[in-house]
Amino acid sequence: MKRILGWTLVVLWAVGVYSQTELLGNIAGRKIMDLSGTWNVIIDAYHVGERNRFFEDRKPKDPSELVEYSFDRSGTLKVPGDWNSQRESLLLYEGPLWYRRVFSYHPVDGKRQFVYFGAANYHATVYLNSEELGEHSGGYTPFNFEVTGKLRDGENLLVVEVDDRRSRDAVPALNTDWWNYGGLTREVTLVEVSQAFIQDYFVQLAKGSAREIAGWVQLNGVAAKSQVQLEIPEAKFRETLTTDEHGRATFRFPVKLSLWSPENPKLYEVILSSSQDSVKDEIGFRTIETRGSKILLNGKPIFLRGISIHEEAPYRGARAFSHEDDRSLLGWAKELGCNYVRLAHYPHHESMVREAERMGLLVWSEIPVYWDIDWQNPATLAEARQQLHEEIARDHNRAAIILWSIANETPMDPARLQFLKALGNDVRELDSTRLLTAAMNRTGREGNVRLVNDPLGEVVDVLAVNEYIGWYEGRPEDADRTEWKTSWDKPLVFSEFGAGAPYGRHGDVGERWTEEYQAGLYEHQLAMLRRIPSLAGMSPWVLMDFRSPVRLLPGVQDMRNRKGLLSDQGQRKQAFYILQKFYQEMASH
Ligand code: GCB
Fold first, then answer.
1. Domains located in the chain, CATH noted
2. Within 10 Å of residue 189's Cβ, how many Cβ atoms?
3. pTM of the model
């Protein structure tokens, strides 16, 4: 089934059609019915649900009828939320699981409705009133289906099969250093819009200009030459756009704006209105570019004082999804002295990006093209492209995002380079205003000199390196003798370095798994980094300990990656203060 879907995707991609409807922009700015809450579920380990037509939610009509399943009697789970953390027996479960939600709705004549999923990991098949709406692959990006005319007046039945089995041809593939949290991990909502509505829009500063905004508005369901008004009241800006025969209007206008930055995270209310629809958003405006080895924000060089973050909830070991989760994680980043976060290794919740933006944190956003995936497989490329498109479609108005990362630690081979070049081209086409990057980990060597010479360096705007001197190779002191050279005159960021230590485990600085070892490694790394002239920033690995089934050392790891500067209970380790001090110094220069 999955393989067939993969190939179907390739074909659909080639003809420019997808199984699901184009994504609705700015879901928070729409009239929605939140379907969060308690859903009935059936765990379907042997995958019999499709054959037994679980999507019909059948109940025996008389005592003689055979029905071998029951949503009503099989238990419940919360949505949003991964299943692994909600029931002990599901901690390591990977497989299909069926969700059911019955909701009451009264469709209004002349309106259109969509069912919108913030994310479902990994593969979802969606049924409304026993009819299949479509499928979606990719665990961290949103998707929606139009359901106009399919909703009943009164009770409606929504059934979703979510299958999180890992596979060789998926993105990511079989092996990751994080928990494969399955389920409806983000909100499910029913969205109502008018017949002709504003599908999406892109409103940002024009590339290279701090005085002009440029972008497009896409209407859905209109005849050619419709009008859309674009307003930024606070900036006293108001213009009327006229769409072409595809419902699209592009624009470029001068406007005087106060620019968004970590020191001034200024957001403007932006209002788009068409004859039948109106959407409000909060948008920031800033420029981002590179000059030689510098990253320039609003025309001035900036050093990215960052930290890498996984989307894992503090205190409860689960996929994060709430505002409290966002505020805890980003609050710690602020306390460290960060002006930037690397949201690894997949697109995080939209609310996380919006919160970072409000707090003045720049963002690196990434798709899970991670370690080794099936580089030769066109279906895998189609899935990666789809995830990239959905990520950019969701977040293209977020000023905080400055970097789109297309990969993490991928091998140096020609098939991989072709694959990543295709993704790089997509980024350039979809959003030319931001910078392109990828975390690389293969370097050349000449004595004590490390050479950043992965041919992928040619493709990206910002060179990023994951490097583990003193942890996966050599001793922490080796950093003292290591120099770095790049093959391109481009900014270099260290996207990862780090060491593991459970909070409260102490010993000699030379003893692994102790806070002292971790802190010592940070001292050596930071001393090395200070000596690199092209260094434009860093995001050490990682803010908080996180669950990972590949970290098996009992009493030390217990299925957690312990490279956090904080424990998963929010306790600060010694290395936290070392990095904090370094960032304080950097900020005062
Ligand atoms: C890496 C990966 C990251 C791992 C980390 C580690 O290079 O990018 O996902 O968790 O190393 O701890 O090994």
1. 7-194 (2.60.120.260), 197-286 (2.60.40.10), 290-588 (3.20.20.80)
2. 20
3. 0.96
